[in-house]
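Appendix C. Worked example: EcoKI restriction-modification system protein HsdS
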Amino acid sequence: MSNRLSGYDIEIPPEWTLERVRDLTSRVGSGITPRGGSDVYQTEGVLFIRSQNVRFEGLDLSDVAFIDQKTHRSMAGSKALPFDVLLNITGASIGRCCVLPDGLGEANVNQHVCTVRLEEATPQDAEFLSSTLASPIGQNQIFRLNAGGNREGLNYEQLRAIEVPWPRPNERKKIARILTTLDNLIEKTGALIAKYQAIKQGMMHDLFSRGVDSSGQLRPTQEQAPDLYKQSELGWIPKEWDEGWLADEIGPITSGWSPLCDSVPATKDQWAIQKTTVCVWSGYDETENKRLPGHFQPRPHLEVQKDDILVTRKGPFDRVGVVVHVHETRPKLMFPDTVFRLRLKNEKDVLPAFVPFALGSDAVQSDWYGRKIGLADAQVNINHGILKTTYFPKPKPDEQQMIVTRLSQIQGLIRAEEKQLNKLSSVKSGLVQDLLTGKVHVKVGEAEEVAAHA
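Step 2, the predicted output written as structure tokens:
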């Protein structure tokens, strides 16, 4: 076999070989849907892996199913073993893959997940193969095979024919070690983000149901001190708080503009259109923009300014109604037509930084949840009427500032970890192709060095 990767102008090192999956494996096959379908799923028993569990980041057990031993025995041919590579072979997630780790007990897979089992499976070789299949080397082959006419998914013969570079054992082990180190860092950073998000969610619940008193302490709960609270459209809120329609606090709602733009971000002296992802719950991100082509004239009235409030107005269900405050921003950024801009009438009564937290509270988001418009979760929207008739809590400005200060601190921690996660993902993306094609040769201490500098 040639040492040139199929479909690539890349030649692997002469000491490496190019192998087809069939020459490395003892099994390539998927499972079946148990007789009775989801009705036979259990709350415990044998782990039953479905396509939603297979993620590039690793096995996701947040939405896991189980089957009983009898069903497992009837599907003995698709039993999954530790260090199998799990690969989705149908649907929108086709090509997604990860390694089945040790320590999860018995497992099986359904018909949408294929187990790729190395003849002599080791954790390092399984990680190497999974990383190769997840890289452009594997994904491009999977895309070409799937686009070749079989729209239902990949068959086993197609999978067995996929080519992968195969270094010598010691080098495979080193490469896998580097990638595993990065994956572990990515996983830990993701877990830290989830922890901070849970803390923020708890703080949001307390701060928008109890608020803080003049000493900066949370008030007793309504059950503990009912005389401190009043019933409102938002539920029980402190007596000192005002409340009313959002329409009373804001000026005209402005829609943005989304011309066809270059995919690259703009430099600071260029005009740009922001992406919808400028709005995320961890805060405003000015780097999410696309350069405005020269044949378009900018629209300065759509330029984002300090203390603007941006709200995503259409898109996937969970991305609609995300609200951010523009604490500061570079010039020449215009917001897109997927986003509304709000500006307050009187910033003395309501702090701009308070608005996204208030609109992100459980009461408001639950209200919007039931009023989003659309035929499918993939594309919904909110309109001016929904925003204007949103009931809005209004503590005194001093209390608003205390709430903002507390939530901004935890939000800053989330933002910092998200930046670290993006950095790690970028490092991994840059390394994978070079490592898996031999462009960059690994050294014994490379994994530790990567961990130290990531």
